[in-house]
Amino acid sequence: MTASPSTSSGDKARDVEKGTSEAHLLNTTISSLSWSSISVTTTKSSPSEILHNSTGIVRAGEILAIMGPSGSGKTTLLNILARRPLPSSLSFPSTTPEICLNGSPIPLSEFESISRFVEQDDALIGSLTVRETLSFASKLASRQNGRERLARIESLLDSFGLQDQADTLVGTAIRKGISGGQKRRLGVASQLITAPKVLFLDEPTSGLDAVGSWEVVRYLKGVARRNNLIVIASIHQPSTTTFNLFDKLLLLSHGKTHYFGPVGEVTSHYEGLGERWPVHVNPAEVLLELVNTDFADDKTEARRRLEERQQAWEGSDRARKLTADVASQPKGEVVERGTAADKKPSLPSTVVTLVHRSFVKSYRDVVAYGIRLAMYTGLAIMMGTVWLRLPATQESIIPLTNSIFYGSAFLSFMAVAYCPAYLEDYMQFIKEKRNGLYGATEMILSNFLIGTPYLFLISVVFSVISYWLSNFQPTAKAFFTWVLWLFLDLLAAEGLVVLITSIFPSFVISLALVAFANGLWMSVDGFMVPPTSLNVFWKYVFHYWDYQKYVFENMMINEFSERVYACATTESGCQCMWQTDLADQCLIRGQGVLDQYGYKPGYMGKDIGIMMGIIVGYRVAAWIVLKLKK
Ligand SMILES: Nc1ncnc2c1ncn2[C@@H]1O[C@H](COP(=O)(O)OP(=O)(O)OP(=O)(O)O)[C@@H](O)[C@H]1O
Do you know which InterPro entries this protein is assigned to (predicted)? Predict the structure, then answer.
């Protein structure tokens, strides 16, 4: 450790105490959040209890720590208190519990408008600056005028000690940004931009050192206290100084409450049970040892003692008083509701914000599009120089066909390179969807809008280099038709990535499945086995909705339907590899090549329609998948 929290961060601490212009954060409407007798079991044939009879109350201005060993039920309880949907593998044994504000339950939409959840995994966008992160969070969450937005951003930068880092990038894998603790503070600040009254935090200090953890909780506590906010955080093993910052503690073990009440009174509770409380030892460590049976030598004895302590809690005056407090809550109304929800941005405005955010990300983060643009440019140079200046002779017909297949198929195959960037956007989407910022429609629309110009740029750059180097049909019309088909090809390939990665949001799985799907589309697109001889199963089950079929077919028609190629002239005369009506002129009509595939010109409009149907189909399917995601 480089410095003690109590000395090194004195200035910052004073800032916190001093406070800044935080008028928008002030909670004047919610006085308490309470819950009673929450139990959760698994839905297996022999259900086991995950949470048992949890009861609690947190008042305005208080910060509650939910602490317990791994697997004790902290995250489950936090998610329930935040009214997040329960996974299908878990259920409430009786009715769905009521989470009350001011002693009364309120509708979910209103609860969502006045509460926010800060995820364990920050899911911040590394290529944005600290200020931009707050600005985009604010634009996505609420409609404010520019002055008010700026005022809130500046006030949060002050409140969380981030003013000096305001214009620093958050940081990506290849560009160092702000520190881990600053990231956590930014994560909290970006949720506070909408002025929630209740804040849930899933392990806000995990992965941070003692000083970093202390700073996060210290800033949080300052903001909560000054503005009367209710803060509930799950926490693993805080240092003594961090532990003492919390007002209340809920200690869990195997889903059961062992203590609920002021942090300062936990020692006397255990001393009252006859436990010897060691001095000069981190209290959080002592507590976790008291409720953890995992590392005991004699597990049976440890479980028996744990059970005894838990029974002692249930029979304690504190527990009885807590139950009585919760039950006797005056049933108040939540008078003035969250201002943020009343002024949610419109769908077009959210889409514009998302496109703007992705645009900033795309030019700062090379992984998004830069690497792909470089990769496709390299591929174009490679292809153009391998298939170099092919003359219009019969020897070029097979190389040209191969180039058409390789170019279209390999380009769409390389769309797998988009998986990591999309996965990042997907994670961001899930976090923001859970916090009620926007939904699947905004995500799919903005993703399509930001990706389309880049794909068009890639199609043009690729074609300008490789088309003319290889000497495909040298007319402007044929060139632009080629660009069009390449563009449609990339749009479909990207749609496939979006769909598969949305279904399986895992880097390895989505990469493998996108590669497999493209491999399948390649093998049935008509090049490997011409459609005239492809067996009926593959033809009727896959070939007709294979987007690569339409690209290959139309690029072939583009090259061959209006072009003629010279046959070979040897001493024995003219030798044509394809016999067409031009054989007597020692030429091959390109249509002769197309005939072996069964391709005929004149259907481009229909094929573009089908291709657009496939592109839209992938996006609609991805939209449905995202809509169903919890
Ligand atoms: N969706 C689920 N289906 C079945 N069991 C679950 C599910 N979620 C959690 N559990 C189980 O419930 C118990 C509590 O899990 P939970 O994640 O709430 O604990 P935790 O205290 O947050 O743990 P950690 O500190 O390791 O994150 C664990 O035994 C876990 O295996």
Answer: AAA+_ATPase, ABC2_TM, ABC_transporter-like_ATP-bd, ABC_transporter-like_CS, ABCG_dom, P-loop_NTPase, Plant_ABCG
* d(CA 255, ligand 1 centre) in Å: 9
pLDDT digits (tens, 9 = 90+) for 566-600: 999 988 899 999 999 999 999 999 999 999 999 99
Among 254, 233, 374, residue whose Cα is nearest residue 313: 254
Q: Given the DSSP bridges, would you call strands 104-105 and 99-101 parallel, antiparallel or unpaired?
A: antiparallel
- In angstroms, rounded to a whole number, what is the distance separating the alpha carbons of residues 189 and 183? 10
- In angstroms, the first-to-last Cα distance of the chain is 40
CA-based Rg of the chain, rounded to a whole angstrom?
A: 32
Most ligand 1 atoms within 8 A of CB, residue of 40, 75, 80 to mutate: 75
Question: Is the per-residue pLDDT at 478 higher than 60?
Answer: yes
| 332 alpha carbon – ligand 1 mean position (Å) | 34
Specify the ligand 1 atom closest to the Cα of 73: 18
Distance of CA 527 to the CA centre of its chain: 38
Q: In ligand 1, which atom is closest to the CA atom of 77?
A: 18
Q: How far is the CA of 74 from the centre of ligand 1 (A)?
A: 8
Is the ipTM reported for this complex over the cut 0.95? yes
Tell me how far apart the alpha carbons of residues 263 and 243 are, in angstroms, rounded to a whole number. Answer: 8
Distance 75 CA to ligand 1 centre (A): 7
Residue 71 Cα to ligand 1 midpoint, Å, equals: 5
Helix/strand/coil (H/E/C) assignment for every residue in 303-333: HHHHHHHHHHHHCCHHHHHHHHHHHCCCCCC
In whole angstroms, give the CA distance from residue 544 to residue 27.
60
Position 303 scores a pLDDT of 86
Model confidence band, residue 17 (pLDDT cutoffs 50, 70, 90): very low
168 close to 183: Cβ distance less than 8 angstroms: no
Q: Is the CB of 249 under 6 A from ligand 1?
A: no
Does pLDDT of 5 surpass 60? no
Distance 77 CA to ligand 1 centre (A): 10
Q: What is the pLDDT of residue 343?
A: 72
* Distances from the Cα of 68 to the Cα of 79, 249, 312, 400, angstroms: 16, 10, 17, 67
Q: Which of 159, 218, 150 is nearest to 10 (CA)?
A: 218
Q: Answer yes or no: are the C-beta atoms of 255 and 40 closer than 8 Å.
A: yes
Give the list of residues 6+ apart from residue 55 with CB closer than 8 angstroms, or none.
Answer: 35, 36, 37, 38, 257, 260, 322, 323, 326
Q: Is the CB of 361 under 6 A from ligand 1?
A: no
Domains, the chain, ordered by start: 24-121+197-341 (3.40.50.300), 347-559+604-628 (no CATH)
Closest residue to atom 24 of ligand 1, CA basis:
70
**Exposure string (b/e) for 264-289, b if CB count within 10 Å is 16 or more?**
eebeebbeeeeeeeeeeebbbebbbe
Residues making up the chain, counted from first to last: 630
